[in-house]
Design brief:
mainly alpha, MetI-like fold
């Protein structure tokens, strides 16, 4: 190889390294600016709502007087709706991902299902609200209830859970499956005892991402009839007499934190803006708490696998 060719190769390598460096700097700068803007807005929201973050704020119902108004019905409704969402979406999503990745035959039907699941992850949330209005509210006669809202948000995050489960399982090397088969494990034993434990940390991350999206959604729950003002709580899920469980709360009317915030923001009084900022701070803490729990559980699962 001639000296001119070597110099040309070095020049090409140096140019590509320069381009990579510039791209890395631009990407890092963009990320830092975005994080700083988001952090600044969050801090400003927390500062604005700090004066309203009192114990009374959490145990008071909404009121026409901003200084007496609270988020009791909103955070209770959010908790119940998210409970239904998690119970409906997590088992179904994980089971669907396992089936599509480990059991389903690779044919045109499976390809159509995979394409539709991937596309559904990007469908606007209002479409799920309209679907739930026609199916859950009118067809199944669930009404404007906690159950209908939970199932609606479960449909919303189900594609995310399925796609995340499939990607997590796909990342497990085939040598692990072959080793399980080599010692006589069945397909289900291979999935349950080997594939699923190693991929559960990534699956859990996707589940929490989906739940974090659902907890802040407003359009679907408004579409199915969530209330903007509610001054009572659903029946408690536990009773003092046998059978000690009550499911009446599933049919109760509800409101959630984003709707309560929207109601306060739409009012002209500045005091209600402070209430909205305080509610936004609580919602942000709830979301961060969910993500923190996911990180902790993922760490514990990985530690258990190592041992």
């Amino acid at each position: 190889m001639s000296t001119e060719n070597l110099e040309q190769i070095r020049a090409d390598i140096n140019r590509r390294q320069l381009v990579n460096t510039i791209f890395a700097i631009i990407g890092l700068t963009t990320i830092l600016v975005s994080i700083l803007i988001l952090l600044g807005l969050t801090i400003q929201m927390a500062i604005d709502g700090a004066s309203r973050l009192t114990p009374q704020f959490f145990i008071s119902f909404p009121s026409r007087r901003p200084e007496e108004s609270g988020i009791l019905s909103a955070w209770v409704g959010t908790s119940l709706v998210m409970l239904v969402t998690a119970i409906a979406a997590i088992p179904l999503g994980i089971a669907s991902g396992i089936y599509l990745e480990e059991y389903a035959r690779k044919n045109w039907i499976t390809d159509i299902i995979e394409i539709n699941v991937t596309n559904l992850a990007g469908v606007p949330s209002i479409v799920y609200g309209l679907l739930a209005l026609g199916v859950f509210v009118y067809q199944f006669n669930l009404g404007e209830s906690v159950l209908a809202a939970g199932l609606t948000l479960a449909l919303l995050i189900l594609p995310v859970v399925i796609v995340t489960t499939r990607e997590a399982i796909r990342a497990i090397p085939n040598s692990l499956r072959e080793a399980a088969y080599a010692v006589g494990a069945s397909k289900w034993q291979m999935v349950w005892d080997h594939t699923l434990p190693y991929s559960f940390g990534s699956i859990l991350t996707g589940v929490i991402i989906g739940l974090s999206r659902a907890i802040g959604e407003t359009a679907p729950v408004i579409t199915i009839g969530a209330l903007t003002f509610i001054a009572f709580l659903p029946d408690p899920p536990f009773k003092s007499e046998f059978p000690y469980l009550s499911f009446a709360w599933l049919q109760a009317p509800f409101t959630v934190m984003p709707i309560q915030m929207f109601n306060w923001v739409s009012r002209p009084e500045p005091a209600f803006q402070l209430n909205a900022a305080a509610a936004g701070t609580v919602l942000t803490v709830m979301t961060l708490g969910m993500n923190g729990l996911a990180i902790y559980l993922r760490y514990r699962f990985r530690q258990g696998i190592k041992w």
